[in-house]
Amino acid sequence: MRTVTTYSILFLLLLSGCISQRPAAIRTMSDISYPFPVQSVELEDGLRVAYMDEGKGDQTLLFIHGLGSYAPAWKKNIEGLKNEFRCIAIDLPGYGHSSKGDYPGDMLFYADVIARLIRKLDLQQVTLVGHSMGGQIAITTGLGYPELIRQLVLVAPAGYETFTNGQRQWFREVLTPDAVRLTTVNQIRENFATNFYRFPKDAQFMIDDRIAMRSADDFRWYCDIIPKNVKGMVDHPVYEFLPQLTMPVLSLFGEYDNLIPNRFLNGGRTAEIARQGSSRIPQSVLVMIEHAGHFVQFEKSEEVNAAIRGFLKA
What we know:
Blueprint: H1 2-13, E1 38-42, E2 48-54, E3 60-64, H2 75-81, E4 86-90, H3 107-120, E5 126-131, H4 133-144, E6 151-155, H5 165-174, H6 177-181, H7 185-194, H8 204-212, H9 219-235, E7 249-254, H10 270-278, E8 284-289, H11 296-299, H12 301-313
Parallel strand pairs: 3-4, 3-5, 5-6, 6-7, 7-8
Antiparallel strand pairs: 1-2, 2-4
Helix pairs in contact: 2-12, 3-4, 5-9, 7-8
């Protein structure tokens, strides 16, 4: 019971937020129903990345989900932006319809995957749009592969908030695969609710999916990857390297984000962390969205889409 409780606390305070499937039992996580057709591409080492690819345009938006999430988390943003831009939302390895396996799960691993995917699909004029952990992955990719990235859009990104060595060690130790596996239905509901200022009814599919995926044969890999992701975030912090980003960056935060800052370890206001991180980036725009939580891109999709649209066309 102790591990279940610590997982619930971690998900409440830390970073991201979502993953899904209908309450009916499923055989594999690839049985999850997605809002748009799913394609996949196999990279050089056999790793398969699944993605939704909608719309056309001179610019490509590559959406990267957060901790415990998946590509459908961007449904409203794809719907709102696909008439002007090509919108590609991926499942990170270990998640959703993408390959499962014993992957490192750290930020450098995922940045390499993103870079190889961009090259494999021959994408041009790419803007990475990352939520929470996906934001830290986008930052890491922008730092390591600036020649591939035109701009960054960081939605409630992990990486702006800093932690002491002791706090980072706590994150490394507190979450285990069993803690993820044993999360109860009530805790799943509470974890999702915490990601929003007011939980919207049309986000129920996220809870349903997360409950149903527990029956999947490959659920064990999901339970394995999340602790690796958390360790990867604290092992590869990006705060000190933000001044090295060479591309324009849009940062978007909900003013009532319950996960940033970590209210158990640091406390304070979301706007303070947002300004702290954004001010370190040479070409930076910061937008705070009222009456929105950590999952701001879903809760206030029209405002977020408008901010993205204005940023890309500036």
